[in-house]
Amino acid sequence: MGGNHNEEKNAQHQGLADSFFNLLGKVKKHYEYPTTAYETPAEFKNCLARVNSMYSGYNQHDAQEFLGTLLEGINQDLNRVITKPSYEQMVADPHRSLQEISNEFFEQTQTRDDSIVTDVFCGQLLSKKTCGTCQSVSIMFDNFWDLALSFEKIPSDSQHLYDMIEKFLSEETLDSLVYCRKCDTITKSKKKFVLWRLPKVLVIQIKRFEYVRTRQSKINKSIVFPVQDLDLSKFTKESGDSSVEDAHYTLYGVVNHGGSLNGGHYTAECMNAYNKKWYNYNDATVEETTMESQEAESSFPYVLFYVKASYFNQ
User: Does the N terminus or the C terminus of the chain have fewer Cβ atoms within 10 A?
Assistant: First the structure.
C-alpha cells in the first residue's frame, strides 16, 4: 500500500487503512535504518477493535483469521466500488473459451470488490466437477486471497510444500451428493482445482489444527518450503491467463506458531526489503536471523507469504 492510499479511500471508510498505513510508516523507518527498536501498535489495535469487536480485548486470536479481518477491512476502506450490485450466481457458458469464462467471472467479482487488496492478493481457481453418472464436466471459477493447505495422511514427520499444493489441487470424491444438469440426477461427483490466475502476493496457510473426534488438536509436523524460488509452473499448465507467465515466487515472511493449541505463541520472520536480511520478531524483541538460501524446514510455520519474483524486484 503506497502513499496514494488517501486518493483511493472511499467516503464509507472506517479508518483501518489510515491506521495501518501510519503503522507501516513507523515500521519503515526501522527498515531503512535497522535497529532493535520496536513499535507498539496500540492505535492500530484500537482501530481494528472498532471494526471488529472480537479484537477489543487481549485474548490471543488466530493469525489467519486476523489477516483475513485486516485485508477485508482495508479492502472495504479502499474499495473503488461504492454501491455494490446485488450478487448473481454465474453459470459458465460452454460455448466460450476457458479464458473468456475466467475473465467474465473475475470481472463480475470486481463489480463488488476492487481495491489495492484485490490487485495484490487476489488469485483465481478453476474448479472442475465430474458427474459420477454421465461423466460430464462442469466448471466454475472462484477467487482466493490465500490457499489453505492440509497435511497428507501419511506416516511422515515432514512434508514438502509442493506435495501439499498437489494434494490441494488433486481430484477428490465429494462427500455430499451433487445435482447434475446434464443427466438430471443427484449423484456422487469428483472435483479438482487448477491454479488459473496467480496473485502478486501469495499467502499460504498451513492447516495445523484439526478435529479428532470431538477434540481439536495441533499438527506439529515439519514442512520443507522453498525460499528463493517457489515455482508453481507445473500447477498452471492448463491455464491460459497471462498472470501465470511468471509463476516464480520469493519467500518474504513467515508467521510461526509454537507451543500447544491452548498455550501457543506467535512469532514472525520477515525479510527487510532494503538490506535483504532476515529478522525475527518475538513480541518486543527484534533480532537478526538467518534463512536458508534455497529451502528451509521447520515445524513452526503457520502462514507463509510469497511475492512474485517480478513484483518483488520492482
Answer: C
